[in-house]
Design a protein that fits this description.
The complex is a heterodimer. By secondary structure, chain A is mainly α. Chain A is 74% helix and 0% strand. Chain B has one domain: Orthogonal Bundle (MetI-like fold), CATH 1.10.3720. Chain B has 13 helices and two strands, in the order H-E-E-H-H-H-H-H-H-H-H-H-H-H-H. The chains are: A mainly alpha, B mainly alpha.
Chain lengths: 271, 288
C-alpha cells in the first residue's frame, strides 16, 4: 500500500484540517491572552499566556458549579437512558413480536423530533408537578431526546453478536435476563461504551430543553455561556475560557470513541 | 409474553414523557391559553389557532426561510463533504489522527460553535473580521455581520456548513472505503478516465450512502435553534427567524401556549415526514 501522499492531495488535506480547527484554536489562544493583547485593534499573536480568565470565571465567580450541573445531568441521562433503552435494544435484536416495526418507528420518531417538540410539551407536565428547575426534570427530558439513539445504536451492535451464543446459553438453562446480563452485555461492551459517550456528549451539549426546563442554580453550561454576553460589556476573556472548558470533555471523548463515531452518529445505519 | 418485560420500562417512560405531554399540547392547540394574558386561560376555541396559523404571513416567511436555510446548508455541506471525502480516500499514516481532528466542529455544542464565531466576527475586535477587512471581503472592522439582514442569514448558513461538513466528510469517507474494488479495476482496464470513473462508477455505487448522509443532515438541520438563538435571536427584524426560533418566540417570549402548540405540532409534522423518508433510505442502504 502506498502510504505517501501526492503534493496537491497532501496540501488539500492540510487545508481541510486548517479550515475546521483554526477557528477553534484561535479562540483557545485568545482565552490565554492578557487583557491588553485581547483588545488590540490588530490581532496580537505573540504574548505571555495567562490563565487568569479560567481562574476568574471558574473559581472566583464560582462557575465550576455549572460544570457539576452539566456533569450530573449527563451522567444521570446516561444511566436512565441505558436502563430503559438497553432492554428494548435487546428485545429488538433477539425477539420477533407483534407491532415491532411500529414500535421501532415510534422510537425513531422520538429522536428525530426537534428538541422543542420534546421540551415544550414536557414543560406543561413538569410545571404542574414541580419538576421545572430540577436536575431530575432535565435528566428525564434528555433521556427522552436520547432514548432512540440508545435503542437503535445498541441494537445495531447486539445484532452483530452471533445467535449461537444465545442458543448455547439457552441449552445451559439461562433465562432471557441472565443471557442479557451475562452474555450479551459483555460482548456488546465496545458498542455500549461508544453509545454512552455519545449520550453523554449530546446531553452535555443540549441547549433548548435545558433553557426551558432549568433556571438559575440548576442551569447547565450551554445556558450560562450565552447569558454572559451582555450589551453593556462582555468579559470575553472569561466567556472564551468557559467555552473552551466546556468543549474539552467533548473533544477528548469523541477522539476516544472515534472508531465507532460514525455508526453512533448515523443511528447504527452505517458501520 | 415474558418478552414484554423488556419493553415495559420504555413503554411506561414513553407514555409519561411523550404521549401525555403531547396530549396536553394537542389539547392546548385548540384553546386560547396565554400565560402573559390571564384572560386567556385555556378556553376552547376550536380551530382558531390553526386558522390563525395558516393566515399568518410570518409563518410562511419563516417556513420559506427555514427551507431555504436547509437547502443551502445541506447542499453546500454535501459538495464540500464529497470533495473532502475524496481527498481523504487514500491510505496514509496520519489518516485517523487527522480525521479525528477534522470531526471536532461536529462534536462541539452549537452554543460553543456560535460563540466561537460571534467572537471571531465581533465588530472592532474580532480576529477574523480584522483579516476579512484586510482582504477586502468586508468593508471595515466596524461591520456588524450579525446585525445586517443579508450577511446575518448567509453567515449563519456558513457557520452551519463549518459545523456539519466534517460529519458528511466522515460518513462519505466511510462509504468510499467500503465500496467493492472490482468495478474500479474493470473500469481501469477499460481505460476509463478519472472523471469517467467518478461519474459512472463511484457516484452510482455511493448513492445509498449519499442519500443517507443528506437525509440525515436534513433532519438534523431542521433542529437548528441554538446557533440562531445566540447569534441573532431571529433578527435583525425577522431576517433569520427560522421556524424553531418563531416557535420559541411565541411560546416563551409571548407565552402564547395555545398558538405556540399549533406551531410546534406543525414543526413536528415536517420532521416526521423527513424521518419516514430517512427510514426508507436506511432500508435501501441495508439491502444494498
Amino acid at each position: 500500500m502506498n502510504k505517501r501522499l501526492s503534493l496537491p492531495r497532501g496540501f488539500g488535506i492540510l487545508l481541510i484540517l486548517a479550515i475546521f480547527i483554526v477557528p477553534y484554536v484561535t479562540v483557545l489562544i485568545t482565552s490565554l491572552k492578557p487583557m491588553e493583547a485581547m483588545f488590540a485593534t490588530k490581532p496580537v499573536w505573540m504574548f505571555r499566556p495567562v490563565l487568569e480568565y479560567y481562574f476568574d470565571i471558574l473559581i472566583q465567580k464560582g462557575y465550576y458549579r455549572f460544570i457539576i450541573n452539566s456533569f450530573v445531568t449527563a451522567i444521570g441521562t446516561l444511566f436512565l437512558s441505558f436502563a430503559i433503552g438497553i432492554p428494548v435494544a435487546y428485545a429488538f435484536s433477539r425477539f420477533r413480536f407483534f407491532g415491532l416495526r411500529k414500535f421501532k418507528l415510534f422510537i425513531l420518531l422520538t429522536c428525530m423530533a426537534p428538541p422543542l417538540g420534546i421540551a415544550f410539551p414536557l414543560y406543561f407536565v413538569f410545571a404542574q408537578i414541580g419538576l421545572v428547575g430540577t436536575h431530575i426534570g432535565l435528566i428525564i427530558a434528555h433521556t427522552g431526546i436520547n432514548l432512540g439513539l440508545v435503542v437503535l445504536v445498541v441494537e445495531s451492535f447486539m445484532s452483530g453478536i452471533p445467535k449461537e451464543m444465545d442458543e448455547a446459553a439457552m441449552i445451559e438453562g439461562a433465562g432471557a435476563l441472565t443471557m442479557l446480563v451475562k452474555i450479551i452485555l459483555p460482548l456488546a461492551k465496545p458498542g455500549l461504551v461508544a453509545t454512552g459517550v455519545l449520550v453523554f456528549i449530546f446531553s452535555w451539549n443540549e441547549f433548548l430543553a435545558a433553557l426551558v426546563l432549568t433556571h438559575g442554580g440548576n442551569s447547565t453550561l450551554p445556558i450560562v455561556i450565552p447569558a454572559l454576553i451582555t450589551h453593556t460589556g462582555t468579559l470575553w476573556g472569561q466567556v472564551t475560557a468557559l467555552c473552551i472548558v466546556s468543549t474539552i470533555p467533548v473533544i477528548v471523548l469523541a477522539i476516544f470513541i472515534f472508531k465507532h463515531l460514525i455508526r453512533g452518529l448515523t443511528f447504527g445505519a452505517l458501520k | 409474553m415474558r418478552k414484554l418485560v423488556f419493553l415495559l420500562p420504555a413503554i411506561g417512560f414513553l407514555i409519561a414523557v411523550i404521549i401525555i405531554p403531547y396530549g396536553y399540547m394537542i389539547k392546548y392547540s385548540f384553546t386560547a391559553y396565554n400565560l402573559a394574558l390571564p384572560r386567556f386561560s385555556g378556553q376552547f376555541i376550536g380551530l382558531e389557532n390553526y386558522r390563525k396559523f395558516l393566515g399568518e404571513p410570518a409563518v410562511w416567511k419563516s417556513l420559506k426561510l427555514t427551507l431555504w436555510f436547509c437547502f443551502l446548508a445541506v447542499s453546500v455541506e454535501f459538495v464540500f463533504g464529497l470533495g473532502g471525502a475524496i481527498l481523504l480516500n487514500k491510505d496514509f499514516r496520519a489518516k485517523r489522527f487527522i480525521m479525528s481532528f477534522i470531526i471536532i466542529p461536529s462534536m462541539l455544542s452549537p452554543i460553543s460553535v456560535a460563540l466561537i464565531w460571534r467572537f471571531l466576527l465581533m465588530p472592532h475586535f474580532g480576529t477574523f473580521l480584522y483579516y476579512l477587512a484586510r482582504l477586502g471581503i468586508v468593508e471595515s472592522v466596524d461591520m456588524g455581520i450579525f446585525s445586517t439582514a443579508g450577511s446575518a442569514f448567509y453567515t449563519l448558513v456558513l457557520i452551519d456548513v463549518w459545523q456539519w461538513t466534517p460529519l458528511i466528510i466522515l460518513i462519505l469517507a466511510a462509504g468510499l472505503v467500503s465500496l467493492p474494488k472490482e468495478p474500479f479495476e474493470a473500469a481501469l482496464v477499460d481505460g476509463a478516465s478519472a472523471l469517467q470513473i467518478f461519474k459512472n462508477v463511484t457516484l452510482p455505487l455511493l448513492k445509498p450512502t449519499i442519500a443517507l448522509a443528506i437525509l440525515f443532515r436534513l433532519i438534523t438541520v431542521l433542529k437548528t435553534f441554538d446557533k440562531v438563538y445566540l447569534l441573532t435571536k431571529g433578527g435583525p427584524g425577522s431576517a433569520t427567524e427560522i421556524l424553531n426560533m418563531y416557535s420559541y418566540r411565541i411560546n416563551f417570549i409571548r407565552w402564547d401556549f395555545g398558538y405556540g402548540s399549533t406551531i410546534t405540532l406543525f414543526i413536528l409534522f415536517i420532521a416526521f415526514t423527513a424521518t419516514i423518508l430517512l427510514l426508507k433510505a436506511m432500508e435501501s442502504v441495508k439491502s444494498a
